[in-house]
Amino acid sequence: MDNVRRFFYGPSPEEQKRKCNALLRSNTRKLDRDLANLKALESKTKGYILAASKRAQKNPSQATQAQQETRLFARELVRVRKQSQRLATSKATLASVGMQVNEAFAVRKIEGSIKASTSVMKDVNSLVKLPELTGTMRELSQELMKAGIIEEMVSDTLDNQDILEDEDEAAETEVDKVLGEVLKDKVQTPQVPSVPMQAPTAAETEEEEMDSEEMLAQMRGRLEALKS
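Structure (tokenized):
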């Protein structure tokens, strides 16, 4: 009987509510996993910064290369933190959508009708543009349309210049701030050697650059994976 009713009249309001809440929980779990991964990546990046800075102290001949690496890793740390902040904001928005959706269904149960919410539509639209949630948020928007909570599909055009902007060129002031935070009381000011140090060979310099680039590539790969 339920199948016949569903065929002619569609899902009941209670079924629609359960489906919407299931999608909201799924998106919340996805954001929680991504935030946990970013936290681990932030910790690892701090370790890279400390290691490079300590190497500059122990090997004055490698100081220039090591200092360059600390700034490169600091830029990556800035990017990781900005991504974490973005996801935390999105999680708060998602929670707001959940409360508004449940409130709309509660009103429908009492009054027998439902009013479209521009507030929900705006929040859902912002979350659809988030690469981590694009697919499931589009599915949620379809369910909300069926329920009458939003009036139209959110745009498929990902006008997300701010979301996907490449932050490789992080502001130097942010990089300095990160280095000051991570290296505070961890290392001493580099001492100028009293005797000339032997310059590193071209092969050693090339090997150090390759190691640094490899670590950066791995970190960027992890960060991009969180966006896919």
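Residues 24 and 42 are 27 Å apart (CA to CA). The two ends are 42 Å apart (CA to CA).
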